[in-house]
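Weekly structure sync, notes
Attendees: PL (lead), two postdocs, one rotation student
Agenda item 3: pending single-chain targets
PL asked that the sequence for the first pending target be pasted directly into the notes so everyone works from the same version. It is reproduced below exactly as submitted, 231 residues in total.
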Amino acid sequence: MNMDGSIADAGADAPRLRSGLISRRSFLAGSAVGVGALGLAGCAGDGMSLAEAQKLYGPMPNEKFPIPAIDVSKVDPKYYRRTVAYDSKEAPGTIIVDPANYYVYRIEGDGTATRYGANVGRDGFRWKGDAYVGRKSEWATWTPPKEMIKRQPEAAKYARGMPGGLDNPLGARTLHLYQNGAYTLYTIYASLDAESIGNGITSGCIGLLTPDMIHLYDQTPVKTKVVVLAA
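Predicted structure, written out during the meeting:
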C-alpha cells in the first residue's frame, strides 16, 4: 500500500525487449513512452571524463547474471555517481530520495553525501514520506500486483512471478521499502536502462543504474531509514 493509502506496483521497471519479451518501458509507464537518447558524448563533466564514467559503469562479469556495461553516453553527466556537500540532520547511512531533481543521496555523516542519478514515479504515481528498508534482495523475483495486471493485461503471464535475471524489472539488487511493519510495494531497484535516469517513468519505485544500486545496496543494512521528499 502506498503512503497515501493507494496501491503501488511492485517493481516499476519492466522486461527489456529480448527474445520477444514485452518492451521494458511499456511496463515502466503503462503506455508507450518515448524518452529520447541524450547523445552526450565527450567530457562527462564534474571532473569526470567519459572514459572514467565508462569504467565506473562498466560490465560486471562476475555477477550471477553477468551485467553488461551501461551506455553512459545516454546519461546526462550530472547524474553520474559522485560525492557532494550535503547538510542533513539525518543519521549517517540514511537514504534521501529527491524526486524533483532525480537524485538519491546516502548521508555520509561528515557534511557530505554520495549522490546517485535516479528515475522516479511518473505523474500520478509520485509519493512522499518516511519509510525504511524492510528487506533486501539479490536478483529478486518480480510479481506484478493485480492492479497492474488489470491496467496492463500483458503482465498476466508473470502473475506467479518472474525469476531473477537481466530481464527482470527489479534487476540485480532491490531494497524493499516498509512502513509500520508493512511492505509499501515500493522499492529502490537496479536498472540497466540508461535513458530512464532523470525521468519520471515508474509506478512509484526509484531506479538507479545497476552499478550505483549495487554500490548503495552493499552499504545499506535492513532497517535503514529512507526519506522521500516532495516532488
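Discussion points:
- The domain at 24-36+76-228 is CATH 2.40.440.10 (L,D-transpeptidase catalytic domain-like).
- The first helix runs from residue 24 to 29.
Action: rotation student to compare against the earlier draft before next sync.
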